[in-house]
Amino acid sequence: MLLKYILKRILVMIPTLLITSALIFTVINLPEGDYFETLAAEMQAQGEKADLSRIEFLKKEYGFDRPPIERYFWWVTGLLQGDMGYSFEYQRPVREIVGDRLLLTIVVSFFTIIFTWVVAFPIGIYSATHQYSWGDYGLTFIGLIGLAVPHFLLALVFMYFANVWFGTSIGGLVDPQYLNQPWSWAKVRSVLEHLWIPVIIIGAGGTAGMIRAVRANLLDELQKQYYVTARAKGLPPGKALRKYPLRMSLNFFVSDIGDILPSIVSGAEIVAIVLSLQTTGPLLIRALQSQDMYLAGSFLMFLSFLTVIGVLISDIALAVLDPRIRLQGAATK
Amino acid sequence: MDILRISDLRIGFTIHGLAREVVKGVSLRVPAGKTVALVGESGSGKSVISQAIMGLLPRAGAITGGEILFRDPLAPQSTIDIAALPSEGSEIRALRGGRIGMIFQEPMSSLSPVHTIGNQIEEALLLHRPMPKREARGLIETMLGRVGFKDPARAFGLYSFELSGGLRQRAMLAMALICQPALLIADEPTTALDVTIQAQVLDLMRELQAEMGMAILLITHDLGVVANMADEVVVIFHGEIMERGPVEDIFRRPRHPYLKALLKASPHFDMEEGERLVALREARPRPPAAVRAPVPAAETAKAAPLLSVRDLRKTYTTGSRSFFGKGTLSSVLAVDDVSFDIRRGECLGLVGESGCGKTTVSKIIMRAVTPDSGRITFDDGREKVDVLSLEGEALRAFRPRVQMIFQDPVSSLSPRMTVMNILREPLAIHDRGSGRDQTTRVKALMQDVGLDVRFLNRYPHSFSGGQRQRIGIARALALDPDLIICDEPVSALDVSVQAQILNLLKDLQAERGLTFLFISHNLAVVNYMADRIAVMANGRIVEIAPRHALFARPVHPYTRALLRSVPYADLDRKLDFKLAAPGGASDASQWSPVFQRDPEGEALAHLPLGDGHFVLARPGADIREFA
Description:
The structure holds 2 protein chains of 2 kinds. Chain A is an all-alpha fold. Chain A has helices spanning 2-29, 35-45, 52-61, 68-80, 94-129, 134-148, 151-166, 185-222, 225-232, 237-254, 257-267, 269-274, 280-289, 293-321, 323-328; strands at residues 86-87, 92-93. In chain A, helix 7 (151-166) packs across helix 8 (185-222) and helix 8 packs across helix 10. Chain A is globular and about 85 Å long. In chain A, 31% of the residues are buried. The mean pLDDT of chain A is 79. In chain B, helix 16 (435-448) crosses helix 17 (465-477).
């Protein structure tokens, strides 16, 4: 039953990804011109002489004289074979450029999600069970500040004080000597040492939002009759809270996983630039600016793939968590 | 010996810094092995008292005086004052669920939907009587079998949403009684159930009480239930005890005016023709509504019916639908060959248990659900409209002719709109008059339903249930409909408010010549409102008759079972609990063969009994013998 459900969900992913790829391709091709024209224009603006014949040659070489439909199919079939295309700007295959950065992005996002949950859940639960107490008000206030301050500003403030107080530069995700080095234990340790700052900064807003959500959801669930039933059985309040209302309010967060992944990845881009993190955010922004279309497109495709996977994970987790979805899942018509 | 003795209990609530006393010096006792009924309207403080006994008062509430003495029959020497215990201490937790069990009104929401029945019962058992899981499982399955689950081993692994309302309440009973408590508190345990199921659950409670020797504190507003269950009665009003004593004294010699009024406010079957319910508190006097040109009586008798429904049929498909079309599909025939007429100015009652298809019929008439087949003709005397074939603008023009009043006055009004916006919306949608005309019309509507025009700028949450239902009625009246479908309009209301709303509907019908389709599971209410009554079971109309004929000479076994299951507030007409069929009254296999579909023979037909009385039976069957 569950297996069938998972299979069904995976099948649904195929049309979703196809439509997404078409959308991404269209949007990237919407602006006038292409990478080579942008390049020529930039060179001319800087007073250099553009080698027009070379540009013509490159255009032909990369199929830019063909209709967009044809190029789209090339791109998609390439993607299916694991070929993410070629970056014009870096003159290297996209996979090589993106590889390391993707890993770092995933690491930062993963720890940010963990951080958000670990901080938000206890605070949210406290706020809900002590509604309208001073603790609730205080935590709410701090949370609202976290929600209101933009990420990049928080990043700047952090950098400034880290420099003033500790005399260190916290920019980057690894110490400079490990940049472009192969992975080693020392490099991993260096990443972990640097990781906590971006995680806190990127997670701050999300944590504040999550605290509000946990509090609101739990307050709703605490009103429910089955919680009274649980207490009427003689369960101690903590145990009753964990087994019933908390379990029910989890649904909301599990179903949210699919949304969290892309929002953290994209929300972190500006912070990544400010902190000069070697994640994918800055790369994507640069690629979009220069119309480096295979880099941008393949990368966006990868993000959409992550999102779809995130939704899949949350759907499966929901089905495992909630028997109503598992047993009644099929819609009544 | 008294298990529970409450003396001079006072409970206060502090809301927004304002302290208010909701229980004002209540004293009562619950003798061992007996049933004490605590009777009152919502807001009278009866549920708060039960919460105080369990130590489960909401955070805003606190016991401000008095004592709740609990004497456990297993340890009769010592008494525990529950009022003095800390609310989350281990002593009170040992009592809760262990020595005092509790069941609630809504069996659906009282059980966690994400844990199995067995898991939830096991939790209660192991908390108070630690034992190996295997042994616990045996005890629980015995208990589940005892409360009426046919296959206890399977029931253990079921979730609450897989059970019917009656079975859910049985599972709640199993959970409350698994530790063999000395006292069971039942807070409106059958209010949400159908009458026949109610009779079964009440019977089960009595049996278990006799077996286990526990005392029951039964909290209810239904005097019929009280008369059939209670040994002693305590009547509470606004947090004060009005009257208490043995059930004989209370029903035969009610002394307090409140109790007398309560008895008068509930509709019952012995009402005289034209007798009005007396509401506990008369609502604001309301000027009679502008009388529409009345249709002469002689004309209506001959004229074509306002609404004529023929051979309606609707199948719902449930089950898992796989992505590629295949899957385990099962279809339920929700409405099966339903035909009836409603004459202009008439009130047709539609009665049946939940799930019998009555609401689906109303939705089909409203064009909210499309039937598989059938025909609905709407004839206002000027033109005939084929309702089911209407499309686009014609359908939009038809919609104001049929309006609806809903069951739940809370969720059927948008909390984000003021009363003015709510009442004006239908006028705005159908472009009736200028802004000023609409405002005038809304004010008139408010007066028609007995509400103050000054309330127009308020939001629904600041009204009581009865007032909200009045707003719902005003909204249904806004477009001057010919037909109003009332879907259980009073089942969410208190007895006293129910009387006010029923009287209001009656008055409006008389003044405006309205036609009602009145859907309810409460036979007494339908008896009060309807001219003719159609009884539905399993998607079919099994009997249709003028009101007095149906109640005086019911023929169909389902109708009879329904009538038999209604608890009367009368000690001389106690329910015969044993008559209820095991699968509920709608279990067709329990009916006499002439009412069952003959597998080989012809389909069932509506056989006439004269005087507009029809019953669904095998063609050619001699139904006179049942009449």
